[in-house]
């Protein structure tokens, strides 16, 4: 292992170890909100633009994941339709609302919004829409990053009901390249996915106590086809991506 590889692993592991303590309370609150939604047959929407959209797909139709999750996918604000223009779209007011309206979000649902910078128009608009509908709004964001670049703009961290601060510095990348002013090694995706999966594991544990944890199995596991088909049949009416 080279020095820079070791530095990246060590940095990421150190951050995750710290977050186990630093996020203990907000993660517990997030799990409680999601558990309440699950017990009331509500849904959990996950939204992000740019690379943050990967967190929405991380928990969608995932082996070991809960079937009540719904990814909110806005193609123009993701990367596959044009990475450069997606940065423009995620800063464009009015883009997200018409998309969210098509998902049929209801009072009592939960929307998790991932935005490392926490100031772009799209995540702010998604949070506002969630509140208007009567959903609980959970943010995964960097408070340090958004504080550094807000310049008077509204921050996701200020309007979400529950804030999961990933503790990352402005810019996301954490490893300095010797002899340059450049940094490599972004970690927001790895941290966000870990935090989300930990929260959903906590929710699944509580649901399993009553014998009703809607958990997908890997398609290659014995009995997976029947279990997954039952879950798809139940959750497809409110999830357009199943």
Automatic annotation (TrEMBL):
<protein>
    <recommendedName>
        <fullName>SIS domain-containing protein</fullName>
    </recommendedName>
</protein>
<dbReference type="InterPro" id="IPR046348">
    <property type="entry name" value="SIS_dom_sf"/>
</dbReference>
<dbReference type="GO" id="GO:1901135">
    <property type="term" value="P:carbohydrate derivative metabolic process"/>
</dbReference>
<feature type="domain" description="SIS">
    <location>
        <begin position="30"/>
        <end position="209"/>
    </location>
</feature>
<dbReference type="InterPro" id="IPR035472">
    <property type="entry name" value="RpiR-like_SIS"/>
</dbReference>
<dbReference type="Pfam" id="PF13580">
    <property type="entry name" value="SIS_2"/>
</dbReference>
<dbReference type="InterPro" id="IPR050099">
    <property type="entry name" value="SIS_GmhA/DiaA_subfam"/>
</dbReference>
<dbReference type="GO" id="GO:0097367">
    <property type="term" value="F:carbohydrate derivative binding"/>
</dbReference>
<dbReference type="InterPro" id="IPR001347">
    <property type="entry name" value="SIS_dom"/>
</dbReference>
